[in-house]
Design goal:
The complex is a heterodimer of chains A (about 110) and B (about 110).
Chain A: E1 4-5, E2 11-14, E3 19-25, E4 33-38, E5 45-50, E6 54-58, E7 61-66, E8 71-76, E9 85-91, E10 100-101, E11 105-110
Parallel strand pairs in A: 2-11
Antiparallel strand pairs in A: 1-3, 3-8, 4-5, 4-9, 6-7, 7-8, 9-10, 9-11
Chain B: E1 4-7, E2 10-13, E3 19-25, E4 31-38, E5 42-51, E6 54-57, E7 65-66, E8 76-78, E9 87-94, E10 102-103, E11 107-111
Classes of the chains: A mainly beta (about 110), B mainly beta (about 110).
């Protein structure tokens, strides 16, 4: 099992819809969870961090964490074409000294 | 402005010609890493460093060298580049192993 797994997509949603991006991880004691957005050919940029079970909201973005299910998600409300990008999930995994990144989910928001 | 700076942004070189990609951060971060990113393979860690003079291999270290002589700098060295090292490279830094990573702008390397 890969340590951090994401569906590669693409996930296609119409403008104004809610996009839901999911990430599962292998380590039951992971404590730090991050979502990055990466536009094609650009560097990943941090958009959300979450450390406790439950929801964390920041503008149109909501991160949801369920440690019992080893699952973290990112909801994007009122999706815009400018949200079209690849979204990377990153988790601290035991045995690794730095964050472990998933391969990312490509999101396409159509006008 | 807090940032991670990589140079050069673009580089085309020939097989076997040694090259160095520089990375510098101004956030006093302990941790620094190098990644390569190829289509369909995601970010793959090449090397990382937890402090000055402390480096360790990541997932794909073959063909690369690094050094950490100063806290702010973490250069990536390709002593004899080959075409399979053509890729998009990112440097990242973080305060610790569990904290958010900040990425440089990327270096697109082509080896012909």
């Amino acid at each position: 099992q890969k340590e951090v797994e994401q569906n590669s997509g693409p996930l296609s949603v119409p403008e104004g819809a809610i996009a839901s991006l999911n990430c599962t991880y292998s380590d039951r004691v992971s404590q730090s969870f991050f979502w990055y957005r990466q536009y094609s050919g650009k560097s990943p940029e941090l958009i959300m961090s979450i450390y406790s079970n439950g929801d964390k909201e920041d503008g149109r973005f909501t991160a949801q964490l369920n440690k019992a299910s080893q699952y973290v998600s990112l909801l994007i409300r009122d999706s815009q074409p400018s949200d079209s990008a690849t979204y990377l999930c990153a988790v601290n995994i035991r045995g690794y000294s730095t964050l472990t990144f998933g391969k990312g989910t490509m999101l396409l928001v159509s006008p | 402005e807090a940032q991670v700076t990589q140079n050069p942004r673009y580089l085309i070189t020939v097989t076997g010609k040694k090259l160095t990609v520089t990375c510098s951060q101004n956030m006093n971060h302990e941790y620094m890493s190098w990644y390569r990113q190829d289509p369909g393979l995601g970010l793959r860690q090449i090397y990382y460093s937890m402090n000055v003079e402390v480096t360790d291999k990541g997932d794909v270290p073959e063909g690369y060298k690094v050094s950490r002589k100063e806290k702010r700098n973490f250069p990536l060295i390709l002593e004899s580049p080959s075409p399979n090292q053509t890729s998009l490279y990112f440097c990242a830094s973080s305060l610790g192993g569990r904290t958010e990573a900040f990425f440089g702008q990327g270096t697109r390397l082509t080896v012909v």
